[in-house]
């Protein structure tokens, strides 16, 4: 993905849609109890035709570059499914999606769509924090003896736990955007002071002990 498209997506997420908010001086509290300077609601992107098209183009370009042998695009339920559909359409590839757990009725499927033994799957999710949910989807596909060659996301926090979890699962991750790019954009546009930027980057290094 070229820098112009990346900047356009960041600007739309932060300024237009406000799907990402960074506020070191008024932090958010996650369900886990963690204090954080960032809050994301990337589900909002599906309602914006221009932004979702830009995201699909960006993800498609990165998947072509990093995984040229991909034969199937997979969406991770639920937030990854619409973006996977748009990317599959852009690339002209088959689509599957992976539930968070097998259905408790019917055939009990966890994976919907057709897979062949020699397929090479790229799974798509909207947001990566620790990677837990998408890596469960990776495991579900691999249990069917199908190769997952990588995971793609719109945004990744780039936290140490995520790096560790993907390495342990021997799974590659590519993300269109990351936390530091968001902070740098806000710094360049003077939306964050030098002190706020330093605080935001401190959180990224040690999230659980930030501001303690």
Describe this structure in words.
It is built from 7 helices and 10 strands. Strands 7-6-5-8-9-10 form a 6-stranded mixed beta sheet. Strands 1-4 form a two-stranded antiparallel ribbon. The chain has a two-stranded antiparallel ribbon with strand order 2-3. Helix 1 runs antiparallel to helix 2, helix 2 packs across helix 3 and helix 6 runs antiparallel to helix 7. The mean pLDDT is 94.
The chain-level structural class is: alpha/beta
- How helix-rich are the residues, as a percent range? 40-55%
Strand composition percent: 15-25%
Given this structure, which CATH class is correct? Answer: Alpha Beta
Q: What's the number of structural domains?
A: 1
CATH architecture: 3-Layer(aba) Sandwich
In quaternary terms, these chains amount to: single chain
Summarize the structure.
With about 210 residues, this protein is of the alpha/beta class. Helix content is about 40%, strand content about 20%. The strands form three sheets. Strands 7-6-5-8-9-10 form a six-stranded mixed sheet. A two-stranded antiparallel sheet has the order 1-4.
């Amino acid at each position: 993905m070229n820098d112009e498209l990346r900047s356009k997506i960041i600007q739309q997420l932060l300024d237009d849609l406000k799907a990402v908010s960074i506020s070191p001086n008024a932090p958010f509290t996650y369900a886990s109890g963690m204090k954080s300077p960032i809050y994301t609601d990337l589900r909002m992107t599906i309602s914006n035709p221009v932004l979702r098209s830009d995201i699909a183009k960006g993800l498609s370009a990165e998947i072509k570059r990093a995984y040229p042998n991909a034969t199937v695009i997979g969406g991770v339920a639920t937030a990854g499914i619409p973006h996977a559909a748009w990317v599959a359409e852009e690339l002209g590839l088959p689509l599957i999606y992976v539930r968070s757990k097998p259905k408790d009725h019917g055939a009990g499927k966890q994976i919907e769509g057709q897979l062949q033994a020699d397929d090479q799957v790229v799974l798509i999710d909207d947001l990566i924090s620790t990677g837990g949910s998408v890596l469960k989807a990776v495991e579900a596909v691999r249990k069917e003896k199908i190769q997952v060659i990588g995971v793609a996301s719109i945004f990744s926090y780039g936290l140490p736990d995520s790096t560790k979890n993907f390495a342990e699962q021997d799974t590659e991750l590519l993300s269109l955007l990351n936390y530091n790019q968001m902070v740098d954009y806000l710094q360049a546009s003077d939306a964050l002071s030098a002190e706020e930027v330093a605080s935001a980057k401190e959180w990224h290094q040690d999230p659980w002990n930030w501001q303690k």
